[in-house]
């Protein structure tokens, strides 16, 4: 809004009109987001809309390299399989009768716990936080990179 329009609005005691932003579900900002159609367990088509995980943004900013990113993606899959994902929907279909953990989830949780115990201390804590989209900050970034390198070596990833 121009300065003369603001002066005129003040003289008329009218608040200047704020620019309108498109905040609707069908607006350009929403439609620009990554969208993946999928079929739910009830046979209904739905759309998963995502801005990507923090790991995607870290990779795009060259805070982690390709090999570290691959290890982080595998770790994220393990976190989800173990029922430790930040998304509540991660539990759907994997919790047994009465809210008990399914055998597959129990096995995945055991594998997760062994992996974290093998890493130990700060590395395990930082990677768990990373799976929950908490950036380590510049102070711990090198430790996260080293932990992801350790996992990539363990899993035989090249790069």
Keyphrases for this structure?
159 residues, mainly alpha, two-stranded antiparallel ribbon
The Rg value, from CA coordinates, equals 23 Å
Beta fraction of the residues? Answer: 5-15%
Mean pLDDT across the residues is 79
Total count of helical runs of at least 4 residues: 7
**Overall shape:** extended
Give the topology string: H per helix, E per strand. HHEEHHHHH
**Percent of residues in helical segments?**
40-55%
Instruction: Give the termini separation.
Output: 52 Å
Largest sheet: 2 strands, antiparallel
Oligomer: single chain
Number of β-strand runs = 2
Structural class: mainly alpha
**Low confidence ranges:** none
Strands of the biggest beta sheet: in what spatial order? 1-2
Task: Please describe what this structure looks like.
The structure is a single chain. With 159 residues, this protein is mostly helical. The chain has a domain at 54-154. Helix content is 52%, strand content 8%. The protein has seven helices and two strands, in the order ααββααααα. It has a two-stranded antiparallel sheet. Helix 4 (66-81) crosses helix 7 and helix 5 (103-119) packs across helix 6 (121-131). The longest helix is centred in the last third of the chain and has 18 residues, at 137-154. The N and C termini lie far apart (52 Å). The relative contact order is 0.11.
Produce the secondary structure layout.
Elements: H1 3-11, H2 28-31, E1 34-39, E2 45-50, H3 54-60, H4 66-81, H5 103-119, H6 121-131, H7 137-154
Antiparallel strand pairs: 1-2
Helix pairs in contact: 4-7, 5-6, 6-7
């Amino acid at each position: 809004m121009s300065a003369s329009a603001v002066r005129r609005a003040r003289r008329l005691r009218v608040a200047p009109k704020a620019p309108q932003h498109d905040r609707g579900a069908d607006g350009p900002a929403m439609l620009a987001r990554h969208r993946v159609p999928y079929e739910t367990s009830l046979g209904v088509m739905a759309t998963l809309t995502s801005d990507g995980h923090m790991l995607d943004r870290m990779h795009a900013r060259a805070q982690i390299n390709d090999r570290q990113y691959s290890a982080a993606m595998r770790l994220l899959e393990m976190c989800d399989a173990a029922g430790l994902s930040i998304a509540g929907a991660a539990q759907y279909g994997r919790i047994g009768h009465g809210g008990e953990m399914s055998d597959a989830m129990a096995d995945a949780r055991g594998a997760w716990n062994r992996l974290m115990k093998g890493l130990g201390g700060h590395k395990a804590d930082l990677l768990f936080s990373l799976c929950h989209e908490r950036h380590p900050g510049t102070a711990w970034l090198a430790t996260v990179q080293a932990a992801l390198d350790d996992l990539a070596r363990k899993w035989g990833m090249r790069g």
